Amino acid sequence: MQNFQGIFKNFDHIFSQKVILITSFIISLYNAKEQVIHMSILNFQSTKIAVIGMGYVGLPLAVALGEKWRTVGFDINGRRIKDLNSNIDSTGEVSELDFNNSKLVQFTDDAKDILDSNIYIVTVPTPITKNNLPNLNAIKSATKLISSIISDGDVVIYESTVYPGLTEEICIPILEKENFKLNKNFFCGYSPERINPGDKTHKLKDIVKVVSGSNEYALDLIDRLYSSIIDAGVYRAQSIKVAEAAKVIENTQRDLNIALINELSIIFNKLDIDTQSVLDAASTKWNFNRFNPGLVGGHCIGVDPYYLTYKSKKAGYTPKIILGGRKLNNEMPAYVADQLIESLVEQKKDPRHCKVLIMGFTFKENCPDIRNTKVINLHEELLKRKLGVDIFDPNVNISEAKNQYGISLIAEPQKNCYHGVILAVPHDDFINQGPGYSQSFCRNDGIFFDLKGRFKIEESDFRL
Ligand SMILES: NC(=O)c1ccc[n+]([C@@H]2O[C@H](COP(=O)([O-])OP(=O)(O)OC[C@H]3O[C@@H](n4cnc5c(N)ncnc54)[C@H](O)[C@@H]3O)[C@@H](O)[C@H]2O)c1
């Protein structure tokens, strides 16, 4: 009897196991079918990708995608679109050859042209307000546009730099509607851009692309999409939040490292030690990481840490080191202005009767980008100290500088004219002409500041 019961029990067990197996097989078939349906959006014939925001990040991406995929680059700036349709890129990131190789890309400022897209990639700006808080206007408005046109099975990928949690807390709720839900009707992902404008060695295709997705299916699809254009390959982050955090700490780390070196530069200047020489010596150790002092501007390194600190404060912790580093870097223009005044006073000159030339206006060398340049702060600090100041930068569109900052850059400085010349942004065009070129604008007794120490120590009067 006991044996029979045992056999039946065993039979029951085997039967229920089979039912479970069959059920899960049917479910997996169903899921597989759904996924095949969704996966079918990623094929060269039917996939249409809309890249929203044709700036430093969006344009190279749209052009690279357009080598293989039907791609539309959308921007609200009609002038930019007009230029791109004539193969003109004012950011200097995309060459004529790149445009010509990208046979499947088109550019538009008409939202109708992206209506039938199935993948949307958002590359709009994420700046900060005057109070250093995240300004989410562009990312919200791009998301609202997508929300009005998105359809079943579509995928939305964010590339703009954000704080950890922003995609899920701000963007996805805008995309979701009553019967239109994440991972059921549409999918989402985050893949930060890591390009470095002006850098001809590390271009989009040469930098490992971090990818993340709202579920395994989205992650696979986003992985496949980027793998098709990125030679360096992709890295699958554990979650969207992890990918967001990874991007923001890359720039925060850089900001802090530079802040440390800026602080060291202030200390060493007081001790009459040349910082560059110290860095040369220290860099001979295998695990010393070299960073250089300087003005930290631009829309990434000087901005992204505020996204992280904002989120951290919301979570109840006010960062000390990150904000300390930000403050120190922001104070560097005033520090440089003070150094110049000190040098002029040492020469028994009255700064109020002195004229200074700043060479370089962009936020960093070899690119035309003037957004959030700290040279404008240096200019203000010098004006506050009553000096006459000219700015010269052949890489900058003079009317753009006038529009953005209300100042008039000079087209060509006069030789032997200035009491002080500050080489603030060492563009290759300046450096390749040797120190004599920058010094030629100084009067005979003029002071020459080679801020980033690109020339030999004896060739300038001061360097950070
Ligand atoms: N530039 C970089 O080096 C870099 C590197 C990595 C990441 N990022 C991040 O990428 C994002 C984009 O930066 P960028 O430098 O390319 O900015 P950008 O200012 O060069 O370009 C953004 C473009 O988006 C357009 N735009 C603004 N709002 C829009 C909207 N609602 N719809 C459509 N287009 C809109 C603007 O007209 C502009 O052409 C930012 O989050 C930035 O932090 C930038």
Keywords:
binds nicotinamide-adenine-dinucleotide; eight-stranded mixed beta sheet; 464 residues; four-stranded parallel beta sheet; 12 strands; Rossmann fold; 13% strand; alpha/beta; single chain; 16 helices
Explain what this protein looks like in three dimensions.
The protein is an alpha/beta fold. It has 16 helices and twelve strands. The strands form two sheets. It has an eight-stranded mixed sheet with strand order 3-2-1-4-5-6-7-8, with helices on both faces. Strands 10-9-11-12 form a four-stranded parallel sheet, covered by helices on one side. It has a domain of 200 residues: NAD(P)-binding Rossmann-like Domain (Rossmann fold, 3-Layer(aba) Sandwich). The structure holds nicotinamide-adenine-dinucleotide.
Uncertain runs are none
Radius of gyration equals 28 Å
User: Could you state the CATH homologous superfamily of one domain?
Assistant: NAD(P)-binding Rossmann-like Domain
Q: What is the helix content?
A: 40-55%
Largest sheet: 8 strands, mixed
Strand order of the largest sheet: 3-2-1-4-5-6-7-8
Topology, number of strands? 12
- Please tell me the CATH architecture of one domain by its name: 3-Layer(aba) Sandwich
CATH fold-level label of one domain: Rossmann fold
Cα distance spanning the termini:
93 Å
Structural class estimated from helices and strands = alpha/beta
Query: Given this structure, which CATH class of one domain is correct?
Result: Alpha Beta
Give a list of the ligands.
Answer: nicotinamide-adenine-dinucleotide
Mean pLDDT: 92
Molecular shape: elongated
Give the count of helical stretches.
16
H/E element order: HEHEHHEEHEHEEHEHHHHHEHEHEHHE
DSSP strand (E) fraction? 5-15%
